[in-house]
Amino acid sequence: MNIHKNNFLQLITDIFYIIFLYLLLLAKIKITNQLDSFHFFFLGVSLVISWLILSLYSSIYRIERHYSLLVIYRKFSYQILMFTVALIVIFGLIDYSNIEIRDLLTFLVTFISASLINRLFLFIYFKKIHLRGQNLINTIVIDSNPNTVKYINSIQQRKDLGYRLDKVISSEEMTNNKHEIFEYFSKKFMHKNYAVFYSLNGECSRDLRYEIQNFVQENYINFYLIPDQNLNDDTSYKLEFLDHLPLINLNAHPLKDEFNKVVKRTFDILFSFFVCLFLIFFIFPIITILIKIDSKGPIFFTQKRRGLNGKEFDCYKFRTMRNDGTNSIQATVVNDSRVTKIGNFLRKTSLDEFPQFFNVLKGDMSIVGPRPHMISQDIYYSKIIKKYNLRNYVKPGITGLAQVKGYRGAIDCDKDMEDRIITDIFYVRNWSLLLDIQIIYQTIVLIFKGDENAI
């Protein structure tokens, strides 16, 4: 395994936790003969070996110094899922009469808790070391492209990432003083704590780039390429392979991963079922009566919206307007005369969105995601806002990052919609279950505090 030196301690502690907790488990079991002793010894060894083998697939110990805590925990979650399956299989090899399911669950939960805390401690510890200027990788940046300054700024401003800027070498300097610079490399690379960032599609020739790359790698120094593509919040990179040939996927995002899809869908179903069971069936009758008393018309308002990959679906809401024939084509504005008295209350408290939990159970929507717009808005803004449709890479949500950030309500100008789209695309690129939970929490706070942007 290619283990980063900062994560070797994590590997040792994980193995220690497995062995220590397994011994505690055995302490509660009555071992009556030598055969039982052999079985339990074999199972303990199997647990350790399984953890090590699975770590090869999850890359749990291949963590670079610049990785975020979220990336570390995501790798750990995948490892734990596989290890849980292995645990069930391994303990299925022996008679369960000596082992209680409760003890197995205690073993697993305790191990997960201890490992998560330990990873958090090590993450904070090494960040503090880096901030003190210790254990930093000296970085040499060669040539330049439109993104080079961004990388240099990150290295200089974010010492916690673990890098120190040693030297910036221009294409002109590299070309005219190649011999002197290679001598400089030879002296510096003796220390090994160096990395070279090379700017793609700069002014240096291709032959010179390969010469630099070969020299750096022959000295066992990490060589990184700075891409020249536009880097912003709507661009993601993922290295993939066609047979043995590398490809860079620019449309990668977390919810393209099948495991992440399952996690988000499972959370959506469980959360929606809870809401439907404990809230909606209590609130529905009250809202139904209030809507009927307030104005004539149906209880629900159904409108076509665009969802995942632009596919249309029927979006459900409680009716909050008088039906004058424009509700499906004209967006709501401040002090809209079509909104009823009870409709105004439902909008201010977001109760009008509750029927969309049925959309979630049907699979058309998610609890959290970009809010679905009217199709007429989609058609109009997709023509004037760059990469508008990237928000449809994921399912639309009952609530979203844009809503809790204040980008909700009337669209008074194109800039209002542009701010909303930028936030939606950021969510698509940076999805995580923790982010969803945070957005749900902020939404609940806004419901009780009141949102001045709600109309």
Structural features, described:
Helices cover 53% and strands 12% of the residues. A hairpin with a 5-residue loop joins strand 7 and strand 8 (312-318). It is built from 15 helices and 10 strands. The protein has 3 domains: 5-131, no CATH class; 137-231, von Willebrand factor, type A domain (Rossmann fold); 258-449, no CATH class. It is flat and about 85 Å long. A 4-stranded parallel sheet has the order 2-1-3-4, sandwiched between helices. Strands 5-6 form a two-stranded antiparallel sheet. Strands 7-8 form a two-stranded antiparallel ribbon. The chain starts with a helix and ends in a 6-residue tail after the last helix. Helix 1 runs antiparallel to helix 4. The mean pLDDT is 84. With 455 residues, the protein is an alpha/beta fold.
Topology readout:
Elements: H1 5-27, H2 34-58, H3 69-91, H4 101-131, E1 137-142, H5 148-157, E2 163-169, H6 171-176, H7 178-188, E3 194-199, H8 206-218, E4 222-226, E5 238-242, E6 245-249, H9 258-294, E7 300-306, E8 312-318, H10 341-349, H11 356-362, E9 366-368, H12 375-384, E10 397-399, H13 401-404, H14 414-429, H15 433-449
Parallel strand pairs: 1-2, 1-3, 3-4, 9-10
Antiparallel strand pairs: 5-6, 7-8
